[in-house]
Write a structure and sequence with these properties.
Rossmann fold, 6-stranded parallel beta sheet, alpha/beta, DNA polymerase, domain 1
């Protein structure tokens, strides 16, 4: 090593702040809001329901599908809710072609955190089939040691997903952090005293995330990775 190299070499290496990092999926790692909005509007039209605005759909992204639909349309009719669910799924799987890429830098961040020894997990409003499909599409399932989906736990903002993940991974809430773009993500972590980081590039406004006292709000994947390192 030359003298110049020695002088410029870092004296310490970054390390993860948390043993376990739990990510939301849609709007946090995957840029899928446009597709979700389009498909929900398509489902509404198919079922002769009022077409919700993009903002209205954005507000319920993150909740499990049927509860989200009931909230969005203000309905309690199980039959109608199920028809909307089926119409949404048909649009998502077979009709709508809106792309759902990962946000820039996601794969590199996941690889870096994994290489540093951080355990990664997912807590998502997607169903298991949907998450598995997204992992296959993006070739990212390899990075995650555990996950909970909408058909395996109570819907956000219940902390049930997080409690199940902590139990499976054998860690306390103090050793983990929840990353998400919605107030539901922040609420579920706050309910069990878990640190949380909000991302401003998803579907919920920054001011609403801030009201739930996250450790920080980040505006890009690069900022998120920095926030996760000590």
């Amino acid at each position: 090593m030359t003298l110049q190299q020695d002088l410029t070499a870092p004296t310490t290496l970054a390390k993860p702040r948390y043993k376990v990092v739990i990510f939301d999926w849609d709007g946090t790692l995957m840029d899928s809001a446009a597709k979700i909005i389009n498909c929900m509007q398509t489902a509404a039209a198919h079922c002769d329901m009022p077409i919700p605005s993009a903002d209205e759909v954005g507000h319920i992204i993150g909740i499990s599908l049927k509860p989200a639909i009931k909230q969005l349309f203000g309905i309690s009719d199980e039959g109608l809710a199920e028809r909307l669910v089926l119409a949404y799924k048909e649009a998502f799987l077979a009709k709508d072609t809106t792309p759902c890429p990962l946000f820039d830098g996601v794969e590199a961040m996941l690889a870096n955190l994994t290489e540093m020894g951080c355990t990664l997990a997912v807590a998502t409003g997607k169903a298991r089939r949907g998450l598995d499909r997204a992992w296959k599409q993006t070739n990212t399932g390899q990075f995650f040691s555990a996950s909970r989906t909408a058909d395996e736990a109570e819907s956000k903002p219940s902390p049930d997903m997080l409690l199940q993940l902590l139990a499976e991974l054998g860690v306390s809430a103090g050793d983990a952090v929840m990353i998400g773009d919605t107030t539901y993500d922040m609420q579920m972590a706050k309910a069990i005293g878990m640190d949380r980081i909000g991302v401003s590039y998803g579907v919920h406004a920054q001011v609403h995330l801030e009201a739930l006292h996250p450790k920080t709000i980040v505006h890009s994947i690069a900022e998120l990775e920095t926030a996760l390192l000590a």
